[in-house]
């Protein structure tokens, strides 16, 4: 099998030595070409080119941002070309999508699991989410957020450019600072429209998920929509109240073993939806898969079943 291995050299949880070990292990089983990313969206370009050049498999080593780029590259390749299968190895600080697939968080152990799956024909088809608006149209693998969490992602990206290392502690610290000092996140300016449901307005924060968990607090999964699955449509979560008591109670349930119940005080959830629209009275911060996409007044969401053929 001919495979292209896309490596993000800035991956935070791997070293050059561990990357060499992974390359040697994969090359012992596959006809492997290796390329490193050099700039934002480079992995997307490389994945699209892999389809054009007839590769049967694309493998990536990086975080959720690298995964998102590869997925969007594969799914925007010309439709008349056979689409390569995809195997994702963890190299970031969270690796939400990869862990949701059930792969080990350690990149070398994940490599072993992927190689075993390849030998045994262990492929699966997963559904994805897709956004569609005037500014951008992209696929996402596990989540999209409007409001508070997107503001957190924006600030983390800003601090990473200044040399800070992305970590769960940094995300949680910034989230707490914004909760206390961020005026915009305390504005109930969002509206959710789902076919067949009443329009819901005056929402403080909205989250769309394609699987569970939404993210991790260290090793602890954070589950606002624990029923969300790759095999189903999209789930949504929205805060209808934003104060210390309510938010603390909701967050406590999110990190419990069962995750947040479908209904409760201060929030709403929707399960297994095929499409819906989120609007804002004025532009609000927006992110997908932990990547800040700027400010939006409206985003349309769709569920795309069986969008991607994954290994492992």
UniProtKB/TrEMBL annotation:
Superkingdom of origin: Bacteria
Domain DAGKc positions: 1-135
Pfam families cross-referenced by the UniProt entry: DAGK_cat (PF00781)
Keywords, ordered alphabetically: Kinase, Transferase
EC number(s) given by UniProt: 2.7.1.-
Family listed: Belongs to the diacylglycerol/lipid kinase family.
The protein's name: Diacylglycerol/lipid kinase family protein
Taxonomic source organism: Marinactinospora rubrisoli
